[in-house]
């Protein structure tokens, strides 16, 4: 059996953070639409846990905005990840918390 992840978040806080990140992306690049979805609960190995889509007139704006969005999401949105193994579970910190230590 694959080792799943368990993703936990406080939805109101995560929604505010994602909205702020999207606002920043809109102010930095000429983009039309943004879609962000993040899986909650158990995620089997190999399954998608986050989806980001950006529409823009110019490819560079869309690609740069996507990179910014995923990097900021991983660094700042309060999503807690628990790796589940047959012999126990381990909570993993987000990128921002790792950089602070």
- The proportion of residues in beta strands is 25-35%
* Strand order, largest beta sheet: 3-1-5-6
The ordered H/E elements are EHEEEHEEH
Low-confidence stretches: none
**Inertia-based shape:** elongated
What share of residues is helical?
40-55%
By DSSP, the count of extended strands is: 6
Q: Report on the biggest sheet.
A: 4 strands, antiparallel
Arithmetic mean of pLDDT: 88
Structural class: alpha+beta
Could you give the distance between the termini? 33 Å
Number of helices: 3
Would you mind describing this structure in some detail?
The protein is 42% helix and 35% strand. The model has no long low-confidence stretch (mean pLDDT 88). The protein is α+β, with helices and mostly antiparallel strands and 101 residues long. The chain contains three helices and six strands; from the N terminus they run βαβββαββα. It is elongated and about 50 Å long. The protein starts with a strand and ends with a helix. Strand 5 and strand 6 form a beta hairpin. The strands form two sheets. The chain has a four-stranded antiparallel sheet. Strands 2-4 form a two-stranded antiparallel ribbon.
Short recap of the structure:
This is Molybdopterin synthase catalytic subunit. The protein has 101 residues and is α+β, with helices and mostly antiparallel strands.
Helix/strand layout:
Blueprint: E1 5-9, H1 11-28, E2 31-38, E3 41-43, E4 50-56, H2 59-76, E5 79-85, E6 88-92, H3 95-100
Antiparallel strand pairs: 1-3, 1-5, 2-4, 5-6
Helix pairs in contact: 1-2
